[in-house]
Design a protein that fits this description.
Strand content of chain B: under 5%
Largest sheet of chain A: 2 strands, antiparallel
Shape of chain A: globular
Radius of gyration of chain A: 24 Å
Largest sheet of chain B: none
CATH superfamily of the domain at 73-220 and 253-279 in chain B: MetI-like
CATH class of the domain at 73-220 and 253-279 in chain B: Mainly Alpha
Number of strands of chain A: 2
Helix content of chain A: over 70%
Oligomer: heterodimer
Number of helices of chain A: 14
Number of strands of chain B: 0
CATH topology of the domain at 73-220 and 253-279 in chain B: MetI-like fold
Radius of gyration of chain B: 22 Å
Helix content of chain B: over 70%
Structural class of chain B: mainly alpha
Number of helices of chain B: 12
């Protein structure tokens, strides 16, 4: 915020805001099942648990404290969130915490490399397009990537699966591991399985990064100091990398953080198509089974990841932008 | 300040984007007359494309081409309604915060920043699982999660407008806040609002497509995303019936592409630095 000139104060304010977001999410998770139509007990434990419980329903209601006053329920819920008591998933027959964490790892295995690969790709293509702005190179590159960015992630995933797995047979039809392998062979097997989903995710994200880098580098060319640099005889490439790209880095980091929620959402959809055992597949199966606790904590943990990405970006931004140091 | 009509003629991106979007809007609008079959009528299942069925038939024998035309209505209307909700909330909050400043600004922008980082798709999934399939519900829900970025942009525009000469003179002449906000501020943020509206509609259509693909759409109002879900879960994809799952995805991609083109054109026209660099 412009008012908090002191960088430490700015980070403190942001951290405070992220904690507030966390509290809002937890409160939403508490309120939604209790305010929605239907039996709150059903809304909290999910359909399979509810209809499978038989005579034990009243005990469950007692255990969850649904007969207690609302405020008391809220505080006991809050306690549960922080102590890892997230309830039981009847879909996976294990605690929600274990199910969610097991799947989260697989999602991050896709997300982190995709974010980095896309940023590098987008930075390169974006600068080239800005340098050659309004030429055929720019039109083809920017137009093509804008089209890729406009496609639903899962549809792009279906296309990739069709071409590279069905027709060409280069990659497996889905999942993350073949099983029965160990050591290096197992790692290579995972890499082979993740090539397509990672490629799809990287392409979508790189397309967006390209647009951001292109427009921030192009606007540098509108600055007078760049004209001066060019008139001093600095070559095109030197100008591009010395001034253009450096100025595009900070917005790229910010946008990556702001867009992390969208990237995560895209990954969820890609996972569904490839049956990748991450959060997307977890959410898809939880929707089918109406396993509400899983859905709530999936939402919670994704938000935590988005907040972490934002906090990291705040720190990186300070490091990248010399005025903030 | 340039008039939107002037922008439309001058910028090739805005022009081509609008033309492409108009094509799909018209097709959806006139779908009852354009569709060769009743999209709900059961005929022979899994037919290949022919003159009788341009894109074949699906698993229950519905004509896919007619389905495609009709489904466009749902996708476009959900996107449009959600963007309308987001734009209305965003512009109201942005103008109020930027114009009144003070404690109201702090509170409104604090709330905006909170909603801004909440991931939209997982939230919409969670609430729609409880709400059940409902078209107005999903539109409203998507709209209510997408206003923060509009509010932010509008607010910073309003902050610079506050200093403008005509606003100061209107105030000196004794004009009230509501008068200035509705007569002077609102018209001046309109081009920016239009650009954000288009971008929001693109985002909303993508979310709708995802929600429907996850099986949370209203089966009585089939959208492009839901056609893709059926193609994926009911054998169209495995049987390599590309004529079933390519067209709906392409339709979504092209409409969103058109909206993105319009937004890109607006960006070029309204960002002075960008404009100068592109003209140099």
């Amino acid at each position: 915020m412009e008012k908090h000139r002191h960088p430490q104060a700015a980070v403190a304010v942001k951290t405070g805001r992220y904690l507030l977001v966390l509290l809002v999410i937890i409160t939403l998770n508490f309120l939604i099942p209790r305010l929605m139509p239907g039996d709150p007990l059903l809304n909290i434990i999910g359909e399979e648990a509810y209809y499978g419980a038989g005579g034990a329903l009243e005990n469950l209601r007692e255990d969850l404290g649904l007969n207690h006053p609302f405020v008391l329920q809220y505080f006991s819920y809050l306690g549960g969130v922080f102590t890892g008591d997230w309830g039981f998933s009847y879909l996976y027959m294990q605690p929600v915490l274990a199910s969610v964490m097991g799947h989260l790892g697989w999602s991050l295995v896709l997300l982190l490399p995709a974010t980095i690969l896309a940023a590098v790709t987008g930075a390169i293509t974006g600068s080239i397009a800005a340098w050659r702005r309004k030429t055929r190179t720019d039109m083809l590159l920017t137009g093509g990537l804008l089209l890729a960015y406009s496609m639903p992630h899962y549809w792009l995933a279906m296309l990739a699966l069709f071409v590279f797995a069905f027709v060409l047979g280069w990659f497996p039809l889905g999942r993350a591991v073949s099983g029965g392998l160990e050591g290096f062979a197992c790692l290579a097997d995972v890499a082979w399985h993740m090539a397509l989903p990672l490629g799809v995710l990287t392409l979508s994200k790189a397309a967006y990064d390209h647009l951001i880098v292109r427009s921030s580098v192009v606007s540098i060319y509108g600055e007078d100091y760049l004209l001066t640099a060019q008139s001093r005889g600095l070559s095109g490439a030197a100008v591009l990398f010395k001034h253009g790209l450096r100025n595009a880095l900070a917005p790229l980091v910010t946008v990556t953080a702001i867009q992390f929620g969208m990237l995560f959402s895209g990954a969820l959809m890609v996972e569904v198509v490839f049956s990748w055992p991450g959060m997307g597949t977890l959410i898809y199966e939880a929707i089918g089974a109406r396993d509400y606790p899983l859905l709530q904590y999936a939402f919670f943990i994704i938000t935590v990841c988005v907040l972490a990405a934002n906090l990291l970006a705040d720190l990186a931004y300070r490091w990248l932008d010399p005025r903030m140091r | 300040m340039m008039k939107p009509a002037g922008l439309f003629r001058r910028n090739p991106l805005i022009f081509s984007g609008s033309a492409l979007a108009a094509l799909f809007i018209l097709a959806a609008l006139f779908s009852p007359w354009l569709a060769p079959h009743d999209p709900w009528q059961y005929q022979q299942a899994f037919l290949r494309p022919s003159w009788e069925h341009l894109l074949g038939t699906n698993d229950v024998g519905q004509d896919i081409f007619s389905e495609l035309l009709t489904a466009g209505r749902v996708s476009l209307v959900v996107g449009f309604t959600a963007a309308l909700v987001a734009a209305a909330a965003g512009v109201a909050i942005g103008i109020l915060a930027g114009f009144r400043r003070g404690i109201l600004d702090e509170v409104l922008m604090g709330a905006t920043d909170v909603v801004l980082v909440i991931p939209t798709l997982p939230l919409v999934v969670l609430v729609s699982v409880y709400l059940g399939p409902s078209l107005p519900g999903i539109s409203l829900l998507i709209g209510l999660t997408m206003w923060p970025s509009i509010a932010r942009v509008i607010r910073s525009r309003v902050l610079s407008l506050r200093q403008a000469g005509y606003v100061e003179s209107a105030r000196a002449l004794g004009a009230g806040d509501w008068w200035i906000m509705s007569r002077h501020v609102l018209p001046n943020v309109l081009p920016l609002l239009l650009a954000k509206f288009v971008l929001t509609m693109a985002g909303a259509m993508l979310i709708e497509a995802s929600i429907s693909f996850l099986g949370l759409g209203d089966p009585a109002a089939k959208s492009w995303g839901m056609m893709l879900q059926y193609a994926f879960t009911r054998g169209g994809f495995i049987r390599e019936m590309w004529w079933w799952y390519l067209p709906p995805g392409l339709a979504i991609a092209l409409v969103i592409f058109a909206l993105n083109l319009i937004n890109l054109g607006f960006e070029e026209q309204t960002d002075p630095r960008l404009k100068r660099a592109l003209e140099r």
